[in-house]
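Just curious. Protein, please.
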Amino acid sequence: MNNSLKQHLIKSLQKNIRYDGRKIDEFRDIKIETGVSHGAEGSARVKIGETEVLAGVKMAIEKPYPDTPEKGNLMVNAELLALSSPEFEPGPPGAKAIEIARVVDRGIRESKAIDFEKLCIEKGEKVWSVMIDVCTINDAGNLLDAAALAAITAIKNTKFPAVKDDVVDYKNKTAKGLPLSRWPITVTVYKIGDCFIVDPLSEEEDAYDARLIAAIADDNNVCAMQKGGVEPLSIEEIGKMLDIIQKIAPKLRKKL
């Protein structure tokens, strides 16, 4: 974004005015649909305004990681489809896809949302692996929060596949869900000039100077945090951004 357009955007934000009429701390309409993929053990579609993301969960019996022989595995992959934005291209995951996958993974892992010890079948030999795939359908800004919300919703929707003689029957699901204890909600606050906004449009996202991503647990405590952007953030600014995040997270959690 060129400097004149950015300055115009900042002047509008200083008056608490955004391009689509929202307040600076207001999300667009959120729509959540579960069970959208019959081939997955759990799935969800999340729409935040015109931004749309799908998440699916597959499960498999595999060997545990060497450093956690008594715990199940977690893997997160994000694919930014070229049809969802002219900025995305086919091919291996780029920096943005890798960041989305890591943010989603960290929020689930650090919040202890899943009791991975209960996914152990035989110590050091067999555990359940939880594999989450996030796929973008349309990018109109704020893919990070949409992806995280879709992932936790898909996890909540997941049912174990049937197992017979150590062979997983993916055609039949049981009534057993994942051992969940928390519902982490990820919210990103963007700094543009001296203004802080949430759920940016693509035009606003292009203009940000710094951002703070935080995963918030059920007790409204921060369980994971990541800073992005080229500009530094002061301790005071981080405090203000976290206040906004902790105010919004409970509202998003109600959507589940």
